[in-house]
Specification:
The protein is an all-alpha fold and about 160 residues long. The N and C termini lie far apart (about 35 Å).
Amino acid sequence: YFKEISLPVAYFGLIFAGMNLISAAGSRYAEEIENTLGLRKSLISLILATGTGFLLFGQITIVYSFIFAALHQAVRGIKGPVISDYINKIIESKNRSTILSFQNLTGRLVYATFIPVAGIITDKYGIINAMTTMGITTLILGSIIITIMYYDHLI
């Protein structure tokens, strides 16, 4: 993506360092964000922010559009504490470590499945179309998951 927007290679390291700082800040303030928004809105916001970030990558390709990655990094930082807190609230302590481990495994498996597909789309149709596709897919799948959780009274 950085190549697509003609960002000089010299800035890659600085941008990646900045993104890690944004993720760390997201983790630091995750509890405050969750307390402000509430659990349901926090979970929905994570999906919306992720999908919207991908869509912005796919629709706006200027040199400063790498800033949209900040949205993803903030979500990356916020996601862990919010989801772990949610699991801690609904699961008995005797099962909690197993469920948290399973949740972590599931996240890695989804990532391991999603990223190669995104790579194939990128190779075939270009990074911009891949970002747009990932944004739409994230919003659709996220909406389905949130709807199921809502009707199952999980949120």
